[in-house]
């Protein structure tokens, strides 16, 4: 029988612990498929964050290092500088990257560290039970904002891709989404492009992936995909925010 699909070798057989409808699993698969297609599984080191993907080291079939909350870009910097022949990526949520870890990612981009960051933006703190994140939308309910985010005293949500694109050291920045098959395909292309930038030594690359959190958004999986499309994409437009130069 002809094999038409096989799970990427870059993921282990460990069953994901993610909630039904959470798109972390899709994003793991895309990263894994890209690493396999680029032929770098054996020389990749990932840095797992604190957040729902804290157990990413169980799922990626590559060497993984745990970092303390928000510090993945600093840890990845050390790994890449010690052994530049390795492909090094961080995988971080919005609580991790856009809140406690803002300084680390800004300065990794500023120094143009030759690493790739996968930034999973689900507009909430997932692991800890749905607290408001810097990325939570105006009016969006969170356990720490039961009446919805009020920009008057919480400010407007932080747009990480737009912000990092202003940093000269950032080489490739793109925002994608995984709410439907067409966008999942685009997301994979973007992730591949980011790793290609690293392979060509072009410096810091980041892909922001808009993602769901049905459990903490209080929705079922189908509703959460629609909520992402209707509410997140208008505030967080998809597209390339920085592209230093074309990489063949
Ligand atoms: C120093 C420190 N502060 C706070 C926490 C608690 N904490 C764990 S995960 C998390 C936020 C996770 O949210 P996010 O990064 O958006 O990832 P998600 O779980 O939504 O995938 C927080 C605040 C911690 N573990 N360590």
TrEMBL record:
GO terms for biological process: cellular respiration. Pfam families: TPP_enzyme_C. InterPro entries: 2-oxoacid:Fd_oxidoreductase, THDP-binding, TPP_enzyme_TPP-bd. The keyword Oxidoreductase applies. This is 2-oxoglutarate ferredoxin oxidoreductase subunit beta. Residues 57-209 form the Thiamine pyrophosphate enzyme TPP-binding domain. Transmembrane segments: none annotated. The keyword ATP-binding does not apply. Keywords: Oxidoreductase. Signal peptide: none annotated. GO terms for molecular function: oxidoreductase activity, acting on the aldehyde or oxo group of donors, iron-sulfur protein as acceptor; thiamine pyrophosphate binding.
């Amino acid at each position: 029988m002809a094999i038409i699909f096989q799970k990427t070798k870059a993921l282990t057989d460990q069953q994901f612990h993610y909630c039904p409808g959470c798109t972390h699993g899709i994003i793991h698969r895309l990263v894994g498929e890209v690493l396999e297609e680029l032929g770098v599984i054996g020389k990749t080191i990932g840095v797992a964050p604190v957040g729902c993907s804290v157990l990413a080291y169980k799922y990626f079939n590559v060497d993984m290092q745990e970092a303390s909350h928000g510090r993945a870009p600093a840890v990845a910097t050390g790994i890449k500088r010690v052994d530049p022949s390795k492909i090094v990526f961080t995988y971080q949520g919005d609580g991790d990257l856009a809140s406690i870890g803002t300084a680390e990612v800004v300065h990794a981009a500023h120094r143009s560290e030759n690493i790739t960051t996968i930034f999973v933006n689900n507009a909430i703190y997932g692991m800890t039970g749905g607290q408001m994140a810097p990325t939570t939308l105006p009016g969006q309910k969170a356990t720490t904002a039961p009446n919805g985010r009020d920009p008057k005293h919480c400010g407007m949500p932080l747009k990480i891709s737009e912000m990092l694109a202003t940093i000269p050291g950032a080489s490739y920045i793109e925002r994608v989404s995984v709410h439907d098959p067409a966008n999942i395909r685009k997301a994979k292309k973007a992730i591949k492009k980011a790793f290609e930038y690293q392979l060509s030594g072009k410096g810091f690359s980041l892909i922001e992936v808009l993602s769901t959190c049905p459990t903490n958004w209080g929705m079922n999986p189908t509703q959460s995909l629609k909520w992402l499309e209707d509410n997140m994409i208008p505030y967080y437009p998809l597209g390339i925010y920085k592209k230093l130069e074309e990489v063949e």
